Amino acid sequence: MFFASLASFFLLASSALAQGDLSSGHNLTGLAGTWSSGSRKVVTGAGFANPNNRTFTYPPTAGVSYTFTDSGFFESARYRFNGNGSTQSATDPHCITGIMVWIHGTYTLNDNSSMTLNPFPDGYQQVQDPCAAETNFIEQYNDTELYASWQIFQDQNDGYKLHLFNFDGSPVAPLFQVSTTPNMLPTQNLRNDTSSPQFVTQALFKTDAKTGDAATWSPRGVVSVASALATVAIATLLL
């Protein structure tokens, strides 16, 4: 029993040290710069989001991008699809939920190797679920986010690779450094926002005529209305 407990202690201690290791062996370059996943078509900055009117420029593929500065600022751009966004999505491929998110603010590297993102209040997201009552809407998004750990490795083919792990330990898609210079919008609150969502009264996406691939959807337009009830009524008339 004693030796089993001792072994468990050393196993836990080793795990904790590995997670908290910020040595050069685990972080081969600085965090500052712009990082992007996959095909690297999603990149932070003016080419992704326009917070002045809460719109997005849709990239050709889904992905995620983060930018960090040495002075403690960050920006995040995310474009993803969720096959479980609707109860019908399991049987109907047209019920895929598309989500665009843009936030920026300050970040903190904590003593336990975790990272906290503290967004400014002007962040927002657009959610489309073609099978939901409100098929497309834009709303504020400024939730504080916690990443349990992060590490930077050297990829033999693609250079530096950043791994972020969510608060529950699940990994974010691997991120590759696309620029050592931060590509981001001004590091300040860019919009005096309210909590009222913008609802879309027409379909914002179209599928590829041949494949029906959700990743090829593109926006058509956004209509902002003052009341959710008025929006639903207008949407009903347009259907």
From TrEMBL:
GO cellular component: endoplasmic reticulum membrane
Keywords: Signal
Coiled coil region boundaries: none
Molecular function as annotated in GO: unfolded protein binding
UniProt keyword Signal present: yes
Signal peptide per UniProt: 1-18
Domain of life from the UniProt record: Eukaryota
Pfam families named among the record's database cross-references: Rot1 (PF10681)
GO BP annotation list: 'de novo' protein folding
Name of protein: Reversal of tor2 lethality
InterPro entries: Rot1
